[in-house]
Amino acid sequence: MAAELYVISGFLGAGKTTLIQKLLKEAFRNEKVVLIENDFGEISIDAALLKSSGVEVKEINAGCICCSLSGDFVKALKELLDRFRPDKIIIEPSGVGKLSDIIKACSDPRLKPLATVKCKITVADVKRCKLYLDNFGEFFEDQIKHADVVLLSRTETFPDKVDSAYKLVRELNAHSAIIAKAWSRITAAEILHPEHEHHKHHKHHGHGEHCSHGQGCSCGHHGAQVHGEHCSSGHHNHGAEDIFDTVTIRTKRIFSREDLKARVSKMEQGAKGTILRAKGIVRGTSGWVNLQYLPGDLKITKCAAGGDMLCFIGRNLNRQELVILFGGE
Ligand SMILES: Nc1nc2c(ncn2[C@@H]2O[C@H](COP(=O)(O)OP(=O)(O)OP(=O)(O)O)[C@@H](O)[C@H]2O)c(=O)[nH]1
């Protein structure tokens, strides 16, 4: 039977990895899953975090997913299918990847009997989606326009932003399902099959909550095949490398929570270029900690996976300054 392909896209820090963790736990628990991670930076923080969920993870770092996976996406995907014979393949493109490129690559006729695109989900952060559309529309619009399901994130934290985010998404994509419930109150099934759940939950929406789907959602039952030519190196516009800088730092330093917070705050104040996203796994005073940063939002949590690495993405970044600031090598 053909493996099912799920593409989880979304701009920087939207919540893709968090969603994948939810899908693995709730929907794909008894399935053989291979994850393809196309992270920014030289090392994949997401892959490290997801490996601790016990699934097979294939990392592709830096560059366009469809061109850089062993030089040939289709060939490499076929190899993965032969080697692991997965039931499901989840692809997490980098936040600055274009969904249309991935869909084209996945729709190559050579893959047809082996794997079928089942669902394309885009995660959109209600707080930041307007800002990202205004500034990085080329990437983010593409991710929204080509999605079957748009899952809004941070709706519980910013309920006043839900309506406007919903409208923005609907203007760009008249056909997708849009889910705006707090994630703790949605099941993975509801995300993967919004057409089933829609009627069940419709009556229960509270203020500011939507769960709607337009016509022609191709998730699951309608088949999500998109026809197009395979993207081969040099034949399409990559863009992201020209617009965004990435800096990866390795550091074995031990950070207390306060120390790490202070350094991040210095990074913001010192305006080391425009940092759009930072993440990493470093040594804390009592074990590994995972740092997740978006402008105005810092989370430091304990984590099982080890790392010694920090990755930054933004514009006009100064590697040397960041190395000094975080005690990197
Ligand atoms: N409060 C809240 N936090 C969220 C939500 N979704 C994601 N986050 C947090 O946002 C941070 C980034 O989430 P990730 O899942 O790593 O986002 P991503 O899209 O994989 O990020 P990139 O690695 O930049 O591609 C983490 O600290 C998450 O816990 C949400 O719906 N609500």
Summarize the helices and strands and which ones pair or pack.
Elements (H helix, E strand, L loop, with lengths): L2 E8 L5 H11 L6 E5 L7 H7 L4 E4 L5 H4 L4 H12 L3 E5 L6 H8 L8 E11 L3 H17 L3 E5 L8 H11 L4 E3 L8 H5 L1 H9 L8 E3 L26 H4 L1 E6 L3 E2 L1 H13 L4 E11 L2 E8 L2 E6 L6 E7 L3 H7 L4
Parallel strand pairs: 1-4, 1-5, 2-3, 2-4, 5-6, 6-7, 10-11
Antiparallel strand pairs: 7-8, 9-14, 11-12, 11-14, 12-13
Helix pairs in contact: 6-7
Bound molecules: guanosine-5'-triphosphate (GTP).
Cα Rg: 19 Å
CATH topology of the largest domain: Rossmann fold
Q: Determine the strand fraction and express it as a percent band.
A: 25-35%
> What is the domain total for the residues?
2
Mean pLDDT: 80
The CATH superfamily of the largest domain turns out to be: P-loop containing nucleotide triphosphate hydrolases
Number of strands: 14
The distinct bound ligands, ions and cofactors come out as: guanosine-5'-triphosphate
Catalytic activity: GTP + H2O = GDP + phosphate + H(+)
Organism: Desulfosporosinus youngiae DSM 17734
Pfam families: cobW (PF02492), CobW_C (PF07683)
InterPro entries: CobW-likC_sf, CobW-like_C, CobW/HypB/UreG_nucleotide-bd, P-loop_NTPase, Zinc-reg_GTPase_activator
